[in-house]
Amino acid sequence: MIVTLEGEGINEAQGMQVSLPPESLAELAGVEGASLTVESPAASVTFDSQALNAIARQADAAVVLVVEPVSREQLNEAQAQVVDQEPVFELTLQCNGVVIADFEAGNATVSLPYALAQGRQAEDVVVWYLDEEGGTTPLRNQLRRAKAAGHLHHPPLLQVYGGL
């Protein structure tokens, strides 16, 4: 079973914020093989069955998924150098103000609209994890070029696999 929530009226520059009720998450997590996709023009985030179960176990209130662009002013000097002029997004999944980052053995697939610069290949792109302490960690080989999926996206898309 696959459940997809689509958000219209949200543009890429604004990002997206979605609140997911704990009862609905628990019910969906109880369905074998279920996944959840939250989709808008700003991003698409899919939680596989294992991630969905892990999230539901940690949720005692509404779970809020936020995907929003980050301005250069919010980055420290080292982070700004690493990302250069590439877009930066903050992805957060929280319950009662506490970040849910442990998907146990599950995965989240994040798709963001991104146009490769002329002469670049998807293999050349590095997704960086920018932590709250100001560090940067490359997430190489977790990226692939995807075809447009659904009517909400503007191709091409780059997809990142793994925990948020």
How would you portray this structure in words?
By secondary structure, the chain is of the alpha+beta class. It is 15% helix and 35% strand. It has three helices and twelve strands; from the N terminus they run E-E-H-E-E-H-E-H-E-E-E-E-E-E-E. The chain has helices spanning 22-29, 49-58, 77-83; strands at 2-6, 16-20, 35-39, 44-47, 63-69, 89-95, 98-99, 108-113, 128-130, 136-138, 143-146, 157-162. Strands 1-3-4-8-12-11 form a six-stranded mixed β-sheet. Strands 2-5-6-7 form a four-stranded antiparallel β-sheet.
The best one-word shape is: globular
Number of strands: 12
**Class by SSE composition:** alpha+beta
The sequence of SSEs as H and E is EEHEEHEHEEEEEEE
Whole-number mean pLDDT: 76
The parts where pLDDT drops under 50 for at least 5 residues are 145-164
Helix content: 10-25%
Q: Report the sheet-strand fraction.
A: 25-35%
Total of DSSP H or I helical runs spanning 4+ residues? 3
Task: Report the sheet with the most strands, covering strand number, pairing sense and barrel closure.
Answer: 6 strands, mixed
Strand line-up across the major sheet: 1-3-4-8-12-11
